[in-house]
Fold this protein.
Amino acid sequence: MEYTEKLHSLVQKKFDHTPLVNVQTFGCVQNENDSEKIRGILAKSGYAVSDSFENSDIVIFNTCAIRENAELKIFGNIGKLKALKSDNPDMIVAVCGCMVMQPHIVAKIKKSYPFVDIVFGVNSIEELPYIVYNWYVDNKRMVSDPVVKTDIVEDIPVYRQSKSKATISIMYGCDNFCSYCIVPYVRGRERSREPQNILKEFTQLVKEGYKDITLLGQNVDSYGKNLNPQIDFADLLNMLCQVPGDYVLHFMSSHPKDITRKVIDTIRDNPKISRQIHLPVQSGSNRILKLMNRRYTVEQYKDIINYAKEQIPDVGFSSDIIVGFPGETFEEYLETENLVKEINFTQLFTFIYSKRNGTKAAEMEDNTSHKEKSDRLNRLIKIQQDIFFKYLESFEGKTVRALVEETKPGGYSARMANTLVVHFKSDNENLSDTFVDLKITGKKGTVLTAELLNK
């Protein structure tokens, strides 16, 4: 906060206009949450938030390291800033996030991208006012090596661009060390926030009118393991649901080895919690799951799914699946197909395995061609599309509740708690960021159509 005030005073003297910051976010919803804090810190320091980097005084790329294609895309975008920086030497170009938590990436930026002024990792967001202030004072490149921290900094300012949707990080890091995943190496080990701090933030969001709130963690089911007194994720959900207000509560992501029947029962007993659960399975083969170090079997996964369907009739499951993991045979891929058909996931996020240096899977032999992997991915996408369209058809004639997100020609677009998008017509100009009751009349592509009931 000391350097926030210093930076605010400095930029008031330095600029004859309100300086602008543009934050480009790549990757997951946790990265989006980090970007909201970056915007919040700089807004508190005297900057205005811009949607464009062309006219900005600071451009920050908040990066993702989960797949190789993401890194290549980010480097391509960073390269585009070279000309802008050449035309405007006073513009600060910064790169942060998961990608720069890898020493070889930092070394590459140092060597090949000399126009990048600032590099800082996911554990250094609260240091940003200090970093920017010193760049202005010394006009010297500041490239931080990756650092691991175990403490949690509270009360960082947040700049949310939505008036109705918000995310809250309830924990940071991951202890699972899945053999394909770089996350524990870039975000560190699990650390849970104190429940009273989460409750304070959540209560404030509800008071401010936020109606769609998502709790974030690499594995929310591990929440509370390092806290004293003991509290688990189900306890936290129950505590938050006692906050009065009109809202829907989501969470992501759950881990199949850690999600408990207590969590399922908590969802069943609290109508404010979304009936949509994201539970990444990754593969339908027990042998591949073992190689992935997922620490559950297909049978255990189906057991928790079946229990949830018994307890919560309208529950839906989305999932992540990796095809072409090193050593996966076609027969093992077919086991994944069979699981998808049996579970009837409402949504799938499917990926071809991406090698990440530093992970156990990167050392495994991989004899499957990229074409074979692509064929498997396309087969799986087709299967899921058929399941999804049947799922959409099941809503026809039903009455649903949805949160209005944006205006459309002659009406609005709204999103149900299960993440399905609904378009409806209305002349009412005051429906944005409100809940509405809709009767589903059909579908157009992947979107449901409806008529407004509470006119």
About this structure: The radius of gyration is 23 Å. The chain has four domains: 2-143, 163-274, 281-394, 399-452.
